[in-house]
């Protein structure tokens, strides 16, 4: 049997670990072959300053996926992940990729990381958010918004844990079966902790790890890749949450004071991170 394959459509940098440069090594560590299709090609992420490179046109991204399909590379596909999209039209390229993936394997999982912005700031082109709402959320099995993106997508402020669960379930009503809310900010949370919330229609679970400042770029991409990998291996949502959050904490602990994650040095621990207890909250 061929190794299981995941298609990842996200940004690509030559230096550092954001987008596919975080997702691909993590999924390789979990035993997946990765078809990394870039939506953006950059020398480095913008945290280092204005980067050389460009966003790919939607037709280029679509052509890459079609080329993979033509040679049968999508046949063993078990999952698809979409992250940062550099052009509004790329949402249709992703939707086409999901259709192709499910034609090859109707049970292929699609995780949409709805990268829109953070800390009150939108950093995608106009039209990307609408495309995600209309074209991608209805297809998704799981989504991974951060707190800011959760509020954008549900159209309401989220202050309490109950409000976060309700907002996640409002998104579930649009198509996804599972919502992971990253970097949750809520009343009653411990100041020194970072929380990630997993929500289904029936239950919700909360994971917490120590807050590390500053956080290197790419930790959200890493978490999304690990979550999809564990789900594709058959893990239940609370188990996927515990393993993925614990693994990201391992990487961030190893990256204290650095601008880039020490991902390569931590790859062995991604396979078997320290146990992390998650709390059922609904």
Could you write a compact summary of the structure shown?
The chain is built from nine helices and twelve strands. The chain is an alpha/beta fold. The longest helix is centred in the last third of the chain and has 18 residues.
- Mind telling me the CATH class? Alpha Beta
CATH topology: UDP-N-acetylmuramoyl-L-alanine:D-glutamate ligase
- How many DSSP H or I helices? 9
CATH architecture: 3-Layer(aba) Sandwich
The total strand number stands at: 12
Global morphology: globular
> How confident overall, as mean pLDDT?
96
- Biggest β-sheet strands, sense, barrel: 10 strands, mixed
SSE-based structural type: alpha/beta
Point out poorly predicted stretches: none
What portion of residues belong to β-strands?
15-25%
Number of discrete domains: 1
Fraction of helical residues: 25-40%
The SSE string, one letter per element, is EHEEHEHEEEHEHHEEEHHHE
CATH superfamily: Ribokinase
Q: If you had to describe this structure to a student in words, what would you say it looks like?
A:
By secondary structure, this protein is an alpha/beta fold. The protein contains 9 helices and 12 strands. It is globular and about 50 Å long. It starts with a strand and ends with a strand.
Walk me through the topology.
Elements (H helix, E strand, L loop, with lengths): L4 E9 L6 H10 L3 E10 L10 E3 L2 H13 L6 E6 L7 H15 L4 E4 L4 E2 L2 E2 L5 H9 L5 E2 L3 H8 L6 H12 L5 E7 L8 E7 L4 E7 L8 H14 L4 H18 L12 H5 L7 E2 L2
Parallel strand pairs: 1-2, 1-4, 4-5, 5-8, 8-9
Antiparallel strand pairs: 2-3, 6-7, 9-10, 10-11, 11-12
Helix pairs in contact: 1-7, 2-3, 3-4, 5-6, 7-8
């Amino acid at each position: 049997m061929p190794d299981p394959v995941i298609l990842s459509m996200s940004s690509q940098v030559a230096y550092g670990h954001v987008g596919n440069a975080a997702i691909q090594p993590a999924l390789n560590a979990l035993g997946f072959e990765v078809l990394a299709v870039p939506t953006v090609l950059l020398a480095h992420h913008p945290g280092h300053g204005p980067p050389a490179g460009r966003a790919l046109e939607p037709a280029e991204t679509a052509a890459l996926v079609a080329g993979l399909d033509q040679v049968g590379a999508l046949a063993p596909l078990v999952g698809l992940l979409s992250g940062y999209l550099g052009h509004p039209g790329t949402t249709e390229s992703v939707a086409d990729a999901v259709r192709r993936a499910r034609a090859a394997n109707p049970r292929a999982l699609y995780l949409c990381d709805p990268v829109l912005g953070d800390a009150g700031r939108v950093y995608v082109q106009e039209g990307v958010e609408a495309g995600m709402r209309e074209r991608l959320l209805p297809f998704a099995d799981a989504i991974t918004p951060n707190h800011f993106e959760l509020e954008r997508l549900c159209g309401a402020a989220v202050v309490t844990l109950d409000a976060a669960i309700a907002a996640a379930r409002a998104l579930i009503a649009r198509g996804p079966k599972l919502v992971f809310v990253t970097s949750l900010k809520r009343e009653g949370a411990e100041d020194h902790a970072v929380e990630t919330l997993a929500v289904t229609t029936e239950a919700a679970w909360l994971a917490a790890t120590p807050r590390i400042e500053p956080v290197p770029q790419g930790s959200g991409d890493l978490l999304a890749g690990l979550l999809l990998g564990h789900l594709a291996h058959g893990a239940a949502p609370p188990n996927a949450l515990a393993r993925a959050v614990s693994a990201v904490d391992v990487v961030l602990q190893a990256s204290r004071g650095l601008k880039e994650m020490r991902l390569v040095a931590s790859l062995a621990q991604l396979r078997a991170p320290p146990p992390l207890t998650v709390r059922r909250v609904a």
